[in-house]
Amino acid sequence: MTAYGLSLFVTYVALNLMDGHGQPALLYIVPFILGTFLLLGMKRGELKILWTREEPERACSHIQQEDQQSINH
Question: What residue stretch is flagged as signal peptide (predicted)?
Fold first, then answer.
């Protein structure tokens, strides 16, 4: 949400400087959102999973619980 809010602010400033011309979603909002997504993925070490479509090394806890429940029934 922070990246989206910052991108809206930058878009507002840029549109005022350019007299209302341009495509704010393509120039500012999308790069801010994608950049934040990629930076957080790199920081958390999850970017490799995103690009290679691998299964995570550690499965989600709710998935493990569902698997155990199906085995018990």
Answer: none
